[in-house]
Design a protein that fits this description.
Blueprint: E1 3-5, H1 8-11, H2 19-33, E2 38-40, H3 53-64, H4 69-83
Parallel strand pairs: 1-2
């Protein structure tokens, strides 16, 4: 089972949320699934109700910044490759 980190800004009060309010929810997901089973989700174009895609990506990068590079890589792309059984071509 995997968890996609997306939609947080539209499920919050999308006119008044702060990134500090999102952090505890991210922590619950991290504790529950670990970085190996979390994946970044853009939630585009729906996220634009509350935030631009660029800003959402920046928020996620701030949320994962305290994690190791390996854990960040898992959330940003390695979990996606594993969950969807994708093949990388070099």
């Amino acid at each position: 089972m995997y968890c996609k980190i997306s939609g947080m800004v539209t499920e919050a009060d999308f006119t008044a949320w702060t990134k500090e309010q999102l952090a505890p929810y991210f922590e619950i997901c991290l504790d529950s699934f670990s970085a190996n089973r979390l994946m970044f989700g853009s939630y585009w174009p729906v996220c634009q109700i509350a935030v631009s895609y660029k800003e959402w990506f920046k928020i996620v990068m701030e949320l994962i910044s305290k994690l190791s590079i390996e854990e960040q890589d898992c959330i940003l792309y390695k979990s996606v490759i594993k969950a969807y059984n994708l093949k990388l071509y070099e």
